Amino acid sequence: MKFTSVFDIIGPVMIGPSSSHTAGAARIGRVARDLFGKQPTWAKIHLYGSFAETYKGHGTDVAIIGGLLDYDTFDERIKTSFDEAARLGLTFEFITETGSVDHPNTARIVIGDGDSEMSMVGISIGGGSIEITELNDFPLRMSGGMSAILVVHDDRAGVVANVAVSLAHHSINIGHMEVSRKERGNMALMVIEVDQNISTEILEEIELLPNITKVTRIKN
Amino acid sequence: MEILFRNVRELVERAEAENKLISEIMIEQEMIITERNREEIMNQMFRNLEVMEAAVERGLNGVQSVTGLTGGDAVLMQNYIASGKGLSGDFILDAVAKAVATNEVNAAMGTICATPTAGSAGVVPGTLFAVKNKLHPTKEEMVRFLFTAGAFGQVVANNAMISGAAGGCQAEVGSAAAMAAAAITEMAGGSPQQSAHAFSISLKNMLGLVCDPVAGLVEVPCVKRNAMGAANAMVSADMALAGIESRIPTDEVIDAMYRIGKTMPVALRETAQGGLAATPTGRWLEKKIFGSAAPANG
Q1: What is the ipTM of this complex?
Q2: How far is B217 from chain A (nearest CA, A)?
Q3: Domain assignment of residue A122, yes or no
Q4: What is the pLDDT, as a whole number, of residue B298?
Q5: Together in a domain, A115 and A18
Q6: B218–A10: do the CB atoms touch at under 8 Å?
Q7: Which of A3, A5, A11 lies closest to B48 in CB terms?
Q8: Which of A29, A70, A152, B129 could, after both became Cys, cross-link A64 (CB 3.0–4.6 A)?
Q9: Do A118 and A20 fall within a single domain?
Q10: Do A12 and B106 touch (CB under 8 A)?
Q11: End-to-end alpha-carbon separation of chain B, Å?
Q12: What is the mean pLDDT of residues B160-167?
């Protein structure tokens, strides 16, 4: 079941005009911001399908930028997010793509600052609900609605078990989990959706485990 | 994690076997899924109800969208009702006025609660605040209205779709109208099975409705489709409460909506390429607003 909570249907409370093109877009931007872990200084946003065709009228652009500035779906500042982005030194560019994609409302967000860079693909599946389908070229499937941690690690035996044990020690229950890799023995990505928010301490603890490169989280 | 219902048949069977309202099954499911207590869940829905009420009020006072395409119609309808000249019945017209009010606020980038989407956010609150004047529900009953609507909406979202881009307007205003019809029926004292019939009657009359917004904006024809969605919901609830039954079971109606949505051309699924968006006036408005027509579909 994609939609588990009644508040996916009666909700979200949001700034109009479109749940998929405004609220969903803001959520995609905000997840990207969460995963990047800091305010990016530049953003390239590629829009596909219906997003590309109708983004201006739906405020998809101001919503995604609002999300990158950490605004929630009901934040009135979404309407003036471009001004706020300019004030905070976030430069951005929207690129409309004509290529075909699996879902009609798809955005690829590439963000960065002087130190690092990240790319993420999000889809808006209706009613403001979203899914993340790609992170730094790793395919994945993650709903934006749950707390989650994403672990970039070396593709070695025992890494998954170590992370699971660490979570168990802190009584964190795993709701959904998947592991993907680009090629065997190389770099891999673990996506773990959990029932509780994960503290910074736990993140740091996992980051110290062997063969772990980077840990990020999404708060619910 | 226990799932209490996956389709409308299971939802109705469970409600009738346990002698509970559909809203109660939805509340229990939410408690299981989120591990939160009843009070927290009821309070969250109450806050959504407050957002809906504020949007209705704001719209009835008159709003204008940035483009000027929509706004002010809720005021016109309210004045017409007050004149006493209404032909369709004041409760239906009141639902229409309040649905339009909500969607005019949405088009003006105001704050609304998606039900199930923003483009279809007028139907559920529009009908709720209209029938309120006849049925005089308690606050809890008003919150329950939203859980009943949510239970049916959740089945549609999981077994079909609720976005115009995926399934056309039938998936948005169609789902909203059917959800509202089911909720009105419960509030008026109908059985769970009657709620399901109201839902089916409503959705059957929305099948095939395309999503063809002019200039890609959630304004024309979305606002007026919410008006008709509200009217449809009211009549469908009345039909079910009169004892009229849908010959096609609800889950099969939902499946029909899904299949129709899957075969609907992309031009008619929220891309502003076909239907009313592609009429000469639709294109002219688009040009006037954006300075040029939207790019051809790639």
Answers
A1: 0.95
A2: 5
A3: yes
A4: 31
A5: yes
A6: no
A7: A11
A8: A29
A9: yes
A10: no
A11: 43
A12: 93
Q: What is the mean pLDDT of residues A28-56?
A: 92
In this structure, the number of other CB atoms found within 10 A of the CB of residue A52 comes to: 26
In chain A, the residue whose alpha carbon lies closest to the alpha carbon of B167 is A126
What is the pLDDT at residue A104? 81
The shortest C-alpha distance from B49 to chain A (Å) reads 10
- In total, chain B counts a number of residues equal to 298
pLDDT on residue A37: 87
Quick one: A36 and A117 in the same domain?
yes
| Domain total in chain A | 2
Q: A1 in a domain, yes or no?
A: no
CA-nearest residue to B51 within chain A is: A13
Going by DSSP bridges, is the β-strand pair A138-143/A129-135 parallel, antiparallel, or unpaired? Answer: antiparallel
A9:B108 CB<8 A = no
Rounded to the nearest angstrom, the gap between the alpha carbon of residue B160 and the centroid of all alpha carbons in its chain is: 15
Q: What single-letter amino acid sits at A52? A: A
Single residue among A84, A119, A143 that ends a domain in this structure: A143
Q: What are the chain A neighbours of B273 within 8 Å (beta carbons)?
A: 53
Do residues A61 and A105 both lie within one domain?
A: yes
Residues A212 and A139 placed together within one structural domain of the fold:
no
Query: CB contacts < 8 Å between A and B, how many?
Result: 180
Of the partner residues B117, B218, B273, the one whose CB lies closest to the CB of residue A126: B117
pLDDT over threshold 70, residue A220: no
Residue contact B149–A8, C-beta within 8 A: no
Closest C-alpha among B128, B147, B212, B205 to residue B174:
B205
User: Range of A193's domain?
Assistant: 147-218
What does the alpha-carbon distance between residue B114 and residue B123 come to, in Å, rounded to a whole number?
Answer: 10
pLDDT tens track for A142-168: 887 778 999 999 999 999 999 999 999
Please answer yes or no on whether B273 and A53 come within 8 Å at the CB atom.
yes
In a domain, A79, yes or no: yes
Domain of residue A92, CATH code: 3.30.1330.90
The CATH number of residue A174's host domain is: 3.30.70.260
Tokens 């806050």 identify what position?
B47
Q: Is the pLDDT of residue B102 over 50?
A: yes
Band (pLDDT 50/70/90 cuts) for residue A61 is very high
pLDDT given for residue B84 in this prediction: 97
At residue A214 the predicted structure's pLDDT band, cuts being 50, 70 and 90, is confident
- B50's CB contacts (< 8 A; 6+ apart) are none
pLDDT per residue as tens digits for the range A86-109? 999 999 999 999 888 888 899 999
Closest CB from B119, B179, B270 relative to A50: B270
pLDDT single digits (tens) B187-213: 999 999 999 999 999 999 999 999 999
Question: Cβ A128–B124 below 8 Å, yes or no?
Answer: no
CA atoms of A180 and B72, how far apart (whole Å): 53
Domain boundary residue, one of A104, A121, A143: A143
CB contact under 8 A, B149 and A59: no
Mutation target among B26, B41, B154, B254 for the A interface, most CBs of A within 10 A:
B154
Q: How far is it, in rounded angstroms, from Cα B202 to Cα A183?
A: 51
Tokens standing for residue A40: 């990016």
Average pLDDT, chain A: 91
Helix or strand holding residue B202 (H, E): helix B192-204
